[in-house]
Design goal:
Elements (H helix, E strand, L loop, with lengths): L1 E2 L2 E2 L14 E5 L3 E6 L7 E6 L6 E5 L8 H15 L2
Antiparallel strand pairs: 1-2, 3-4, 4-5, 5-6
Length: about 80
């Protein structure tokens, strides 16, 4: 799928028994990968080094003590209550 100059690839498979929920953003300088099925180190930046084929990875801390959907619903309720 192509949207303007951005390509999108979505894979959905209900038959596969292995639970996998990953979201990746790929660019010229690296890739950002979010894995929703792991508790720690679920956001990783893979950065390609200039003038090299070496790729370094960096874990980015993300607070998932509360689900993103719960946060979104709370924000929506707050906006409705405060009309913001």
């Amino acid at each position: 799928m192509k949207y303007d100059d951005v390509y999108v690839n979505i894979n959905v498979n209900w038959v596969h028994t292995h639970l996998e929920r990953k979201f990746s953003v790929v660019g010229e300088k690296g890739m950002l990968l979010f894995d929703d099925c792991v508790k720690e180190n679920n956001l990783t930046l893979f950065k390609k080094q200039e003038d090299s084929s070496v790729v370094k990875s960096f874990n980015i801390p993300v607070d998932l003590s509360e689900s993103p959907l719960t946060k979104e619903v709370k924000h929506f309720v707050d906006c409705c209550a405060n009309r913001t």
